[in-house]
Amino acid sequence: MTAQASPIRSVLAGVGSYLPEIVVTNDELAKTIDTNDAWIRERTGITQRYLAQPHETCAFMATQAARIALDAAGATATDVDAIILATATPDQAFPATALRVQAALGAGGFGFDISAACSGFIYGLSVADAMLRTGQIRGALVIGSEVYSRILNWQDRGTCVLFGDGAGAVFLRAEEASSSGRGILSTHLHAQGSLGDILYVDGAVGQPDRSGHLVMQGREVFRHAVTRLSEAVEEALAANGLPHSAVDWLVPHQANLRIIDAIGRRLGLPPERVVKTVAQHANTSAASIPLALATAIGDGRIRPGHLVLMEALGGGLTWGSALVRM
Ligand code: ACO
Fold it and tell me: Tens digit of pLDDT for each residue in 186-241?
């Protein structure tokens, strides 16, 4: 979806994040799981992950991140017309975690959750952008919040070492398109349900004997991730008539350093223009992009005027991109 026809742009006005209090290094994990730091580091680039304690629920972390995003935007709860929360690990089947956040913030408007696994934040940006540009809303929180530690099979060393918990949020404000060009330039969403069995959670609501654990065919996911994400980058740039060199920062979903590097190489993007937080955060699914964004804005790498390309792929399969002028 391109934004050219509308005079309204969805401006990314503020970003916030929350990471759990407890950090677990690869060496610490190796005390209880048959793994080691070298294997995890070489295959994934991950060195540690943050793991939520019982009070750090999906809603709690989302609310903390949302408060920071609102502050950064100079906004308050009264400016929030919609809360769109991407998660595969909601605290409850319903109400939507977005509405727990709404209550905690004292916001009005409406809210709902999006289930698109690791692509959820991109899906959320796309939906919010459409509502903002058509005038349905003036301000939206888009949040990714995940507690994957609660759906991991801690006996499966092939998956449990890969993920972490956390939340990230952005506040989007509808603004008239200006010469600065700020705002979301385009979003593109894709899905292929026929690949649902290469990455999924078994068990479901109504199956109390199977609370649900993540199951993954790692090599298959790897293969599709590199291909689809490279295509997504090309698609976003082509839709906006921009060359690779126009991108100031690629902010990819932080699944795995080898996937990120493979995409960077394919696209000829210099490594110094790719934001990487997977080493510290591990894979936080829908939270990974806003967490990476918050990190790179916080340390001064991403600045106003920069062109930022975000892309993600996750269970579903789902994938997509968002191109944003900061
Ligand atoms: N520690 C030590 N050894 C391990 C571990 C571990 N944590 N996990 C698996 N092994 C062993 C296996 O048992 C196997 O041993 P064997 O050869 O004696 O049988 C060996 O390591 C190789 O196992 P593979 O699963 O074949 O390892 P592979 O090279 O495929 O790497 C990995 C696995 C890292 C998961 C890789 O497939 C990958 O990066 N896939 C991408 C998936 C991904 O990132 N998913 C995240 C979710 S999707 C998303 O966000 C995009």
Answer: 999 999 999 999 999 987 655 556 668 999 999 999 999 999 999 999 999 999 99
222 lines ligand 1 (CB under 6 A): yes
Q: Determine the distance separating the centroid of ligand 1 and the alpha carbon of 39, expressed in angstroms.
A: 9
Instruction: For residue 36, give every residue at least 6 positions away whose Cβ sits within 8 Å of its Cβ, in sequence order, or none.
Output: 26, 30
CA angle 255, 319, 175 (to 5 degrees): 105
How many angstroms does the Cα of residue 1 sit away from the middle of ligand 1? 35
State the distance from the centre of ligand 1 to the C-alpha of 38, rounded, in angstroms: 13
Mean pLDDT of 64-80: 98
Q: Where are the domains of the chain?
A: 8-176, 183-325
CATH of domain 8-176: 3.40.47.10
Matching fold, domains 8-176 and 183-325? yes
Under CATH, domain 183-325 is a member of which superfamily?
Thiolase/Chalcone synthase (3.40.47.10)
- Residue 206, sorted as left (phi over 0), alpha (psi -120 to 50) or beta, turns out to be left
Ligand 1 neighbourhood includes 152 CB (under 6 angstroms): no
39 lines ligand 1 (CB under 6 A): yes
